[in-house]
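Check my protein:
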Amino acid sequence: MVSKADSETGPEAAAPTGPRAAPDSAGKYVTATVTGAAKILIVGPLGVGKTTLIDTVSEIKPLFTEAVMTQAGARVDAPAPGTKTTTTVALDFGRITVDGDLVLYLFGTPGQQRFLPAWRDLAKGALGALALVDPRDIGASFDALGHLEDLGLPFAVAVNVFPQSPVHSPDELRTALDLLPDTPLVLCDARDQSSSIQALIALIRHLILAATESP
């Protein structure tokens, strides 16, 4: 397995611009102040930046299941963006503590259409999902969003802004993605820690609001 940062260019691959969240003294255990935890899926099409976002925000060394893309896979997968040469074949995993008392366990899903059935296993126990969108190819995210709706999993949408990306207004993006009015939509840079954390916070606020409004 290889790190995506070693094989790609662009926001889906470049090193984070901010420092990694400081781990606890043991480097792998949650702190005593933590009172809650949530499983969150990070989803989106191939090359949209899922692995990079998890690498950027994780306070522990992330787990990646990267494999080199082959000609055999090219016959069934959509073309990879940029110079991408590896892909997630099982899951990515990271952890981040928010406000000192809430731990988010982040599970990144494979981006190819043929891996969508595996989502049902990854989605078990998840409270919600952050769906990444590539503004250069908005339609590539339709399958991921549709699958989240089929699973009945609440989600927020984060548009990962790439260099030279076309600029779309929020209304244009909402219309193109056919989002419900209450679905959060934010812009982010998966390489930037603060930007990525804000996208996750938008999702958490959405989940809290949905839970408090449920009968």
In short: The first strand starts at residue 36 and ends at 43. Residues 1-26, 69-77 have pLDDT under 50 and may be disordered. The chain has six helices and eight strands. The helical segments are 50-57, 71-74, 119-122, 142-151, 170-177, 193-213.
